[in-house]
Structures are given as structure tokens and as C-alpha cells.
Amino acid sequence: MEELLKNAEKIKSLEIQGAANVALSAIQFLSDYAYKIEKDCQCTDDWFNKLNEAKEILFKTRETEPTMRNGLYYIINKLKKNRDQIECDKILELISQYKEEYKKMIEDARLKIAEFGARRIPDTASENQFIVMTHCHSSFVDAILLKAKQQGKIFKVISTETRPRHQGRKSVKILHEAGIDVIHVVDSAMRWAVNYYEVDLILIGADSITSEGTVLNKIGSRLLALVAHEEHVPFYVASPLLKYNPQTSLGILEKIEMRSPNEIWENPPKGVKILNPAFETVSRRYIDGLISEAGIFASSHVPTYFGRIYPELMF
Length: 315
Ligand code: RUB
What we know:
- With 315 residues, the protein is an alpha/beta fold.
- 44% of the residues lie in helices and 13% in strands.
- The chain has two domains: 2-112, Up-down Bundle (Four Helix Bundle (Hemerythrin (Met), subunit A)); 116-313, 3-Layer(aba) Sandwich (Rossmann fold), CATH 3.40.50.
- It has ten helices and ten strands.
- It has a seven-stranded mixed beta sheet with strand order 3-2-1-4-7-9-10, sandwiched between helices. A three-stranded antiparallel beta sheet has the order 5-6-8, with helices on one face.
- Strand 9 and strand 10 form a beta hairpin.
- Helix 2 (19-36) packs antiparallel against helix 3 and helix 8 runs parallel beside helix 9 (221-231).
- The two termini are 28 Å apart.
């Protein structure tokens, strides 16, 4: 348990950041924990209770992360469903197998998203260089931009700082190392930058997608969407369908994680209230398209495609 708590802290503290990385790590941590539960109680109710307890600890690390929740449910629900047929000494192998299956779903989605998304960046640079803007750090946005670079496309990227934890610096480092020209701006310059550089395309990632096609992503995402709307710049979300929260179709609202005020100001004057929401919603009316493993379409189609491609994750 001690190791699981330490691992959970890596997610909570943002040492592990971004929805996909959080999900991949969480399923690994659950599997590592399962290997540590006493062997003699394998397959018993007690064993399953311990696994559930670990799942709850991981869920609580980041509240707005359905990709993680879907992954942990994928493993545990499959085990429960097949419980009667499982040979107890094979249960750990099964956990590893289900974990690898979920990991493959994410990685396969990444390849397709990169391919579809890169097509939105033109082959040849016109007189005015093609400019893409992004906010925060998304591994799926990275995948698209790295693919386009690999294809020899010429473009520049504007990346926002992303206060208070500066995830934009991670985007800058990854893209810069790949030889892509990057311009870094403070968050409050996002409108100015879109206008000044005549941005051609805005790409963000997602943490959660609701049944109505609303996307939740890093705080500041809706501001950027509103700027895109004002300046008539195409605004796309790069996200696997695995970010869908199926419970939102039952009326359950996705929670927005509130982080520690210390991330913003360690020693503020006494009595000053500081709020630190990690994410915000972007309504579907501001999203031109969602770039997913099933293709590019309106974000309101996500529930249909999710049910078709991942039926085992519906409830
Ligand atoms: C990260 C963030 C990312 C999404 C998508 O927030 O908002 O845009 O998680 O990431 P935080 P990915 O830094 O608080 O985790 O595309 O890698 O799944």
C-alpha cells in the first residue's frame, strides 16, 4: 500500500501530467499493486476489495480524468466478469494482459490521431508560414505536430505558458527538440498572439468529454476558444474517444479539479482567497472538430462512436 500511495502522489503532484500519461501510469500502478497483494487471498472477495480500494485511491488523484477511470474500470470489470472462469494462479497474468490491451488502445489511437491531424497542416508553406497555436501540454497535440514535422511540413507553433504549473514549457521543449520553431507567450497574451501572428489553426488536448460534446481541458482553454471564435480561426481538439465520461449521459456532471492555492501564491496576505481550478469547459459550439481515432467530427458525436468502438466501457 505504501508504494501505491507514493505512486498516487506522483499523479497528484503533476510529476506525471496529461490525461493519457495519467491513465497509462494509473493502470501500471494498479497492476504493480495487484502483484503485491498476498498471494493466498487471490480471487477472494477480500482480494477484490483491496483492488477496488487501490482503484479509489487512484481515482482521487485527479478528479477530471475519465481516461484513467475508464482504464481502471476496463481492468477490474473484465476480471469481475470472468471471475468464475479464472484460474486463480493466472489472475495476475490477466491483469497484465488487460493493462496491455488498454495501453494498446491509447497508443493505437495516438497513431491515428497523428495521421488525421497532420493532414490539417498543409504540405507546402505559402508565403505566410502556417502557424499553429496550442495551450498547455497534450501528448496528442504533440503527436500531430511531430508527425507533420516528420512529413517535412513547415510551420511554427505558438505555445502558451500555462500558469500556474507551466506545462507549456513541456510542449516547448518537446517541439523545439524535434526542430519545430516555437514561440512562447504568457497566457494573457493569447488573444494578442492569435491576432499578431494571424494563427491558422488552434489545437488543444482534452481531459474529459461529456455526452453533449463539451470538452474539459486546462484552464484557459475556453478563453482560447473564444479568441478563435472572435478571430475566425479553426479550433480543434485532439483526443481519443477514451476521454469520454459515459456517466455524463446519466446527468452526472464531470467535476472540475480544484488544486492547491499554493501553486499560485505561497504566502499571500492573510484573508485573501485564492482559487486554482485546473480545468474548464469548452462548449461544442466553439469546437470546429474533434480529431479522434475514429476520424474528425463534431464533438457531440463522441458518445455514439465511443459506444461503437468501446462497448465494454459503456457502464
Ligand atoms: C493537462 C491538459 C492536457 C490534457 C490532454 O493538464 O490539460 O491538455 O490532459 O493531455 P495537467 P493528453 O497538466 O493538469 O494534467 O493529450 O496528453 O492526454
